[in-house]
Amino acid sequence: MIEISQTAAQKIKSLMAKQGIVDGGLRVGVKGGGCSGLSYTFAWEREPRLGDEVFEGPEGAKIYIDRKSYLFLKGTTLDYDTALLTKGFVFHNPNAKQTCGCGSSFGA
Fold first, then answer.
1. Which end of the chain is more exposed for a tag (fewer CB within 10 A), N or C?
2. Which value, in Å, is the radius of gyration of the alpha carbons in the chain?
3. Which own/partner pairs from 87-96 qualify as long-range (CB within 8 Å, at least 24 positions apart)?
4. What's the structural domain count of the chain?
5. Which domain, by its residues, includes 57?
6. Residue pair 65/46 in contact by the 8 Å Cβ criterion
7. 12 near 26, Cβ under 8 Å?
8. Residue 107 — φ and ψ, nearest 5°?
9. In this structure, what are the phi and psi dihedrals at residue 61, rounded to the nearest 5 degrees?
10. What is the pTM (predicted TM-score) of this model?
11. pLDDT (tens digit, 9 = 90+) per residue, 68-97?
12. Rounded CA gap, 91 and 23, in Å?
């Protein structure tokens, strides 16, 4: 299960509207790289791909995760930080054994 906070859901919906995407969601993934070994990835998608895990949060916000990435993200909460200097999506990932200072990569 992946949880989407109210703040993240609102941001997903507003960014989708700016992109002109009525139906769809935010693809969240993990790839090798970054200062801690693994990096989070984002992309806008009009629909899930075959085999994706689909999670719906407040306001109907959806995220799509491929099966491989889900192994590293299971139990995560996706939030959105609204602070002026650190604005952006934030992962509260219980699988991360270490994280980098900027929060965009982690080690499992």
1. N
2. 13
3. 89/8, 89/11, 89/40, 89/42, 91/40
4. 1
5. 3-107
6. no
7. yes
8. -120, 140
9. -65, 135
10. 0.84
11. 999 999 999 999 998 877 788 988 888 776
12. 23
